[in-house]
Predict the structure.
Amino acid sequence: MMLRSLALLIALPLAAPAQDSKELARALVGDAPAARQRLVLADVPKPAGKAIALFDGRSLRGWQPWLGYADPSITYRGEPGAPPLGTSRDTSGDFAVRTIDGAPAIWIKGQTWGSLVHRADLHDYHLRLQFKWGPKRWAPRDTQPPNNGLLYHTHGRPGAVFGTWQPSVEFEVMKGSTGMLVMVGKQLRAHTTAAYDPALIAPHLRFRTDGHMVDMINGTPTWNVEAATDAEKAEGEWNTLDLYVVGDRAVHVVNGVPVAEARDLAVLGPDGKRTPLTHGHVQLQSEGAETWFRRITVEPIRRLPRIVAMPS
């Protein structure tokens, strides 16, 4: 299946007309629409060591801020015409530690796009955090679903992706799509299994355990694969995200529900050779929505949990 998908990606135009996006999806993964699966997590690994807090509850110690463009609307232009802000200004109005619901949390304003990158280089781990949305939304995404992201295996140069983020694999944090798998950077690669879902916007692909294998490539019809289901709680409530990573594989879990799995994470070199991507930093995005993060911990593991599809 994977070879068929790769061949189709080479043959199909990368910027097909909008009316052809569903035909592209069907060509990649087949005609059968994706029925929602009821997935559960099995054989959850025991920690192989002590849990470490990536957020100390008092400060942003260990986190490095980076800001994209003063005007986020130019972010995706081929030639933005302005340099990113980077670290050229005080970011205390963009990222801070504040008290909410009686406890400290990392506050991300969201107005200027960018990220916080933790200094720890992580591998073979279970990361857990909680997030909730704040009420504020900012242009140019003020009329769209609130958006953020937990990016992992972060590497490379700050601002290398659209002047705003570092290359990473993304555990999407977006209303209705939390847990979606996204490639951040043109050299990122991953395999996952997906099926056609015409109810989704392009690329109309949803994670399914028995779906067709697809090669995820930024800038192509497989740049993202939607979460198996929307397991996010009502806006205003805290959500728990669990990210399990061992070697070049990862499992995304939202409020105890597994929603995506990636394998063969890799970076594509100048010679076209894939190098397995097995470690890196974590990155919390700022992308147009006020967001709170708290209770960020990581513990070592030696194996991944299993995703099991229950009978319908």
